[in-house]
Amino acid sequence: MSTQQISEVSKPVAPVKTARRSMFSRMRDSAVWWSFTHSKAAMVSAALLAILVLTAVFAPLIAPQNPYDGAQLDMWKAELPPIWEAGSEWPYLLGTDTQGRDMLSAILYGTRISIIIGVGSVALSLLIGMSAGLISGYFGGFIDNLLMRFGDITLSLPTILVAILVSAVIRQMLPLSLREIGASAVLIFAIALSAWVQYARTARAQAIVEAGKDYVQAARLIGVPARRIMVKHILPNTLTPILVAATLNFGMAILTEATLSFLGIGMPPSQPSLGTLIRIGNQYLFSGSWWIVLFPVVQLCLLVVSVNVLGDWLRDALNPKLR
Amino acid sequence: MTMQTGETAALTVSRLTKTFDVSAPWLNRVVERKPRQLLQAVDDVSFSVPAGGCLAIVGESGCGKSTVARLVTGLYRPSAGDLNFANGRDGKTLRAQMIFQDPYASLNPRWSVKNIIAEPLRELKLRTGAAEITERVEELLRIVGLSPSDGEKYPHEFSGGQRQRISIARALASEPEFLVCDEPTSALDVSVQAQVLNLMRELQDRLGLTYLFISHDMSVVHHMSDRVAVMYLGRIVEEGDTEEIFARPLHPYTQLLLQTIPNVRTPNRDREPANGEVPSPLNPPSGCTFHPRCPLATARCSSEAPKIRTSSSGARIACHMVDVEE
After folding, report:
1. N or C, which end of chain A has less CB nearby within 10 Å?
2. Residue A104 and residue A295: Cα distance in Å, rounded?
3. Interface pTM, i.e. ipTM
4. How many CB atoms lie within 10 A of CB A323?
5. Do the chains contact at A13 and B170, CB–CB below 8 Å?
6. Low-confidence ranges of chain A (pLDDT < 50)
7. What pLDDT score does B269 carry?
8. Does A5 fall in a domain?
């Protein structure tokens, strides 16, 4: 057939050319952004979370004191009440603890540690969980059974128990000199190992659905290796539910870290996280120094609640059935 | 197998069989004392596809025609039987590419059209360098009747027919000589069907492609194919030249299928209504699997499975009740 006829066939189906829009303008027009601007809870919690994260990240610039530096602590300034109470002293806005440590500075630095551990453990458990889930869902069979039954075992033990077990074992394996420095790494590892199953299950379910679709078959026909099919084809199409789970689990991870630190197997008092601060403050609650425990608790609540509200909103916004 | 003289087969399939294990999980089988359950999707199927030609496999849904397509492309491994591809123009063994039924599931929704079509180019290293790849993608888009600027868009911005064109462009990108088309138009509406089918015929003529065309639509098959194989419950019941089969269908099942074609001139012609449904392939009828629905069935049909016989005209048929001059 001649090219004349081909172009005749093609004419009515050729769509009008449109310029590719920038990522920013596409985001502004997206349904998720629309839902965000129409949800007060989401905007308030996002703003709050932004403030908490920014103040934590820039803690060294904002905080009046470096709580890790023993030289800056003044025992004469111990147990000062917050600034609005009698007997307070500038610049200790939220008072000081029993070692003269400024509470505001300690909370900002503590939030920083909590966020680092939260982000780190979520990232690590995402990596473990998604790899296991994709491999399980794509290959199926024996490897699927093996990984999922291992996940079932992990899941049948309480999260905190797994975390305690893992952190205790790793801590014993580390030389003494590394235990203080490596405390946050140990926590990240312990929390990640107890939380990866949820991602693995979600990723597996999605991977099974996507692997059955024809575009994956087409890629197999071309001869694309399995690893690349999993990473480039299936992974991007499984991200939505996993993103939601990760956001909600970020709050959980911070709480797990706080629990471990509160129990005394988390961050050491020399680099206190929010949980460590609460543990220390708890001992002075009945001596009248309520600020030592209250402010870290409030900070922890704000952090977790804002993350969870944002995660709830994200889950609804990305759920096509609720649109 | 009969072949007109001078034609060579691009693909010869002999005694192809595919069995799926559809048993309940091991624990359920033990607890509920269920036996293993096997599904014979394709049962002792032999055919050949002439180079540069088009063989259509027709049949109702569930007859195993899509399984044949996936066996030919290598997505499934056969349980028994052989697939022999001839050597292509470059001297290497032919490899089949595939055009899928559902244009909504066959394109990755998160990839731009350009990347979808470029994937075979990159993977098989047919073009190297961004400029060469872009050039080839634009050429392929033009070949299938889309605009080169469509490459920047995503699949959801296209209609079903346009997506099927993208699917064809992706299949063509790997420079195949053999294409398996698994109901490429059944998800499209009729006017678009014709456009896509015409495009596929043009491409066959221009690029010298060989098609294995899977369909349930007899009029589409008439339009596209040189030879037709009719499948029923995993077996081929009749195979022959398209014109021959459409003019003189021998097997009662082929006759039944041909009566399903709507006719503009005699819309209310006297039609034998198709009675019954396709039986479950999990538990196929004894003897000739078509006997419960067959108007000609006798006692022999329910006890003995008919062998496929070749007539002098080159048609192959599996039926006790049809006389074939061998």
Report:
1. C
2. 8
3. 0.84
4. 9
5. no
6. 1-19, 323
7. 64
8. no
Distance of CA B170 to the CA centre of its chain: 18
Residues of A in contact with B199 (CB under 8 A): 6, 9
Question: What are the start-end ranges of the H helices in chain A?
Answer: 3-10, 23-29, 31-37, 40-57, 59-62, 103-139, 141-156, 159-173, 176-181, 183-211, 214-222, 226-228, 235-262, 274-282, 291-318
Side chain identity at residue A249, one-letter code: N
Spans of chain B below 50 pLDDT:
1-6
Domain-located, residue A83: no
A4 touches chain B (CB under 8 A): no
- Quote the domain boundaries for residue A263: 39-65+96-322
pTM of the model: 0.80
Q: Which residues of A touch B158 (CB under 8 A)?
A: 15
pLDDT tens, residue by residue, B209-252: 999 999 988 889 998 999 999 999 889 999 999 998 888 888 88
Reported as a single tens digit per residue, the pLDDT across A22-54 is: 666 766 667 788 888 888 889 999 999 999 999
- What is the count of structural domains for chain A? 1
CATH assignment of the domain containing A310: 1.10.3720.10
Residue A22 falls within a domain, yes or no? no
C-alpha pair distances (Å), B96 with each of A16, A218, B1: 33, 11, 21
CB atoms B105 and A218 under 8 Å: no
Tell me, yes or no, whether A85 lies in a domain: no
Secondary structure (DSSP) of A137-167: HHH-HHHHHHHHHHHHHHHHS-HHHHHHHHH
Q: Does A20 touch chain B (CB under 8 A)?
A: yes
Dist. CA B168–CA B160, nearest whole Å: 12
DSSP conformational letter for B93: B
C-alpha torsion sign, points A189, A193, A198, A203: positive
Place of tokens 């055919």: B47
